[in-house]
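Sample entry (319 residues):
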Amino acid sequence: MKLGLVSDSLSHLAVGDVIKTAAVLKLDCLEFATGNWSTAPHLDLDKLLSNPAARQEFTSRLSDNGLTISALNANGNPLHPGETGRVHSACLHKTIELAALLGVENVITMSGLPGAPGDSYPNWIVTAWPPETQHILAHQWEVAELYWRSLADVARNSGTRICIELHGQQLAYNLPTFRQLREITGEVVGLNFDPSHIIWMGGDPLEFIRSAGSMIYHVHAKDTFTDSVNRATATALDNRPMTMSRERSWSYVTLGYGQPESWWNQFCYALAHFANPELTLSIEHEDMNLSRMEGVIKSVDLLRRAAMIEKSDYVLPAI
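Predicted structure, serialized as tokens:
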């Protein structure tokens, strides 16, 4: 396995300092956001697309520090029914183009979420009743199919692959909905698996890995703390701001503060056994209670112990 970092985890640092930090921590790679729901503090998408010298300088800074790029991240909602959808889709297309120019295989995004017919905003359907929910879903999947068939062809022709991050307020947010999306796109689309989202929605990431297997192309290493007292009354569907961590039913936390280290051992072993032992674990820090640097360092320390860094060389003894 390779250890990496979502560069936005250290968004307060200049790109040079992020690269130096990753080198000091002996990471293998970095993941860079290109726009949409990120301010993309470490990468100028348009400049890199138009300037070969800038691309060379960018990749050289990484390689000089023993680093590669694990993925470009354009998380957003390309299916938004308003202008947001057009802007986010344009960024995603540019990101695929840049990934091809840089020789980066993985482009991370979310499935997107349309509205109901005539709506100006996305509409996340999470229940089977009342009956209009099924009419809305049918419309949303029609919109998604038109968009994703085309985008899958773009990725396929560019030699890249798209890694879908399952998330709330998205059309694909669990394994059944992801399978529905993949029926449209084929294998050029896989998963950027983030266990923290599965945890807060009530799923089991370990069982998820076993079921998803080789459909997992990239991993975000992020944890969730579930407050059982708050959840008992608020349920998992808690829409209060993330800053209200004392009141919320769940919060994103540094690795080891939601699930114990023994769980992360099982997580890494399941990925190696059922998915791919050469996956990248890209640390994503979104903990309200720890500094960004401390959270990243603690996460790296935990994964150094939990992940399978070296390739297996075991052979059965001769009889």
